[in-house]
Structures are given as structure tokens and as C-alpha cells.
Amino acid sequence: MPPRERRRLRRRRQCAINKAAQEREAFMLRWTLIFLVVALIAALLGFGKLAGDAPEIARILFFIFIVLTLVGLLFSLLIGRKPPLPPAL
């Protein structure tokens, strides 16, 4: 293989590696931000005056999410499309 072709393939491979690394970094950054928001909410509920109301809030949110899950399932059955798969780790 000529040296020019070898350099071109090496650059292409390096670009693919860099792109994969950027996707992993974005994935980790997204999870970092999610955990930050969860920690802030937990601190707000735990350190504030809402600590006593946290079980009731959790119960209400649980039923809201159950209803939203059932509505989403019903719509997916009616439309006939499958939900998108989560990204592979």
C-alpha cells in the first residue's frame, strides 16, 4: 500500500476514534448533569422544610408516572410503532 494511502487510512481511523470519544464524553456529561439535578432536588427536600412532605410527593409522582407510562403504552399500541431503543453503553 502506498504511503499516501496509509496516511489517509490512519487519519480516517483517528477521526473515528475521536468521534467515539466525544460521544462517550457527551454521554457521561449528560449523566453527570442528571445526577446533579437529582442531588439538588434531594438536598432541597432533605435540608428544607419539605422533608416531612417527601413521601407524599413521591407517592403523587409515582402515580403520575404510572399513568403516563400506561398512556404511552396505549398510544404505541394504537399507532403500531415500537418505542426507540436506548443507546448502547
3D structure, described in words:
The two termini are 35 Å apart. With 89 residues, the chain is mainly α. The protein has two domains: 1-47; 51-84. The protein is built from two helices and no strands. It is 80% helix and 0% strand.
Write the layout of secondary structure elements.
Elements: H1 3-47, H2 54-79
Q: Span between N and C termini?
A: 35 Å
Molecular shape: elongated
Number of helices, counting only DSSP H or I runs of 4 residues or more: 2
- Tell me the β content: under 5%
Helix content: over 70%
Structural class: mainly alpha
Give the number of domains.
2
SSE ordering:
HH
Let me know the number of strands.
0
Low-confidence stretches: none
Q: Averaging pLDDT over every residue, what do you get?
A: 76
Over the alpha carbons, how many angstroms does the gyration radius reach?
23 Å
| Largest sheet: number of strands, sense, barrel closure | none
